[in-house]
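Review box. Two proteins, two foldings.
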Amino acid sequence: MDVSGALHILRKHWILTSVLVLLTLVGAMQAWVKIQGPYQSESSVVFLASDQASAPDGHNPYMAFDATLATTADIVRRQVLDPRVVAALAAHGFKDTYDIENDPLGIGPVLDITATGHTKAGVMATQVAVTAEVQDELQQLQTDLLPKNQITSMVVTSSDKPTLLVSKKARPVVAVLVVGFILILAVPQMVDAVQNRGRNRRKKSSPRPWTPIETPARAPSFSSAPSFSGAPSGSSAPSFSDGSKPSQLTPTVGQRAETNGGQRAETNGKVETEAANRHDVTSTGIDF
């Protein structure tokens, strides 16, 4: 794309460009203000060994972390993520999205709970409800066991207030800005192209001013004709094929000399004839 040409068109249609820029900024601001969230709230639950399992360690559950606890945590995680439990929580008003993951560091039987939604109150309520559901599911798995043989759980961390996910909130704003930028570049060029087509159409449809056309004089075409009197034999006289009369031609010097010589010869011949006639009359003796 020709950058200089695009900038020239933007400057040419600066009013339209200004309106589009203003609308883009207003749209981005409205997207930031009107679209709530998303917010996120987190908590962590650790699973502790039973009193019976921690007896060799002086009944200290923090010294008895083994693989069985991690397996139990994974079982509970899968149960709470079951669609049945999700539907039950939604029926109680906890409709925000949540997720449960094993501890990413893998250092113990810890479940990380994350709730995401568009309202602060809804996110906090969902996170608290899911955390309680994890502890309840652990208790339901051990209902037939004595309390001293039951694995216990403890909430390690819990968010006091939800946090705003700026990166996700900025996505619609960026989308509005991108669409607005495309419109800022495209709309003025489309308008300019339409104006140019209309201008060219008007130029083609408008009548052109009449200008007289000068036709060149036609050259006479000559054809052979009988020679004029006094013209040398073998020469051809001009004739016009379009039927127009030939114009008087000015004789040349040679033609004038020949004409004058012929006239003088004809006059001398007449004089000699008259003299002979007189001589004949005199000789006959007839007196007139």
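Next protein.
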Amino acid sequence: MAKDDRDILEVLQEELDFIEKGGYGRSVRTPWQPKSAFQDSLSCLNYGYPYRAHPCNDCQLIEFVNPEDRSKEIPCHHIQITERGETIEDLESEDNEAKLAREGAHWLRTKIEEIKEARAKVAATS
């Protein structure tokens, strides 16, 4: 199976847009069922599949996961998104949707800016 060929900048921007529009809020139809960061958005290669059709290692987000966490069941949930080193898994275990959305959006904005700056430097030297 081919690696995820989406532009990582677009993936992160779409995820930020999804969060800012309340994407991880509980569904009106299934309010008892929590949503899972990254897995329940189009950022996930396996979104919409009832099983894992694609290995997580094919996902663009794997680059943000520490190498020792890449073999875990949901590697993207081990991305450290706070300055204190908290991961998505840590924040989801707190069951605080607002904090997860706030911290996730902050992390996404930071990564988006880093990628834009890196690309601008490359373009300036080309």
